[in-house]
Inverse folding.
């Protein structure tokens, strides 16, 4: 995950923004949103563009908490958000840091 995404999670924590966890996610995005949608919001375009925008790897990831293998960094973030119930800052700290130019 890139710095822009981490900054968004930190900002959400500072604002005390309500965090969505679990499914189904509401189809219209109000202030309550899950962490991965927050970092992808505004990217538009294809899945590939959204991953690039947030700096998320499409390679499989192993959860450092429970060793479950997730199919991408996005899935890992959703797993942190929904299955572990981590808050904004915990997700920010636990997501892999992407290489940035
Ligand atoms: Zn896990």
């Amino acid at each position: 995950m890139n710095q822009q995404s981490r900054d968004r999670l930190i900002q959400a924590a500072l604002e005390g923004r309500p965090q969505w966890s679990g499914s189904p996610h509401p189809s219209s995005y109000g202030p309550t949103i899950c962490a991965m949608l927050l970092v992808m919001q505004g990217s538009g375009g294809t899945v590939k563009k959204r991953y690039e925008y947030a700096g998320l790897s499409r390679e499989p990831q192993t959860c450092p908490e429970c060793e479950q293998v997730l199919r991408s960094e996005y899935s890992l973030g959703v797993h942190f958000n929904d299955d572990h119930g981590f808050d904004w800052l915990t997700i920010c700290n636990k997501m892999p840091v992407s290489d940035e130019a």
Notes: Residues 3-94 form one domain. The chain has one domain: 3-94. Residues 63, 65-66, 68, 79, 83-84 surround zinc ion (CB under 6 Å). The two ends are 13 Å apart (CA to CA).
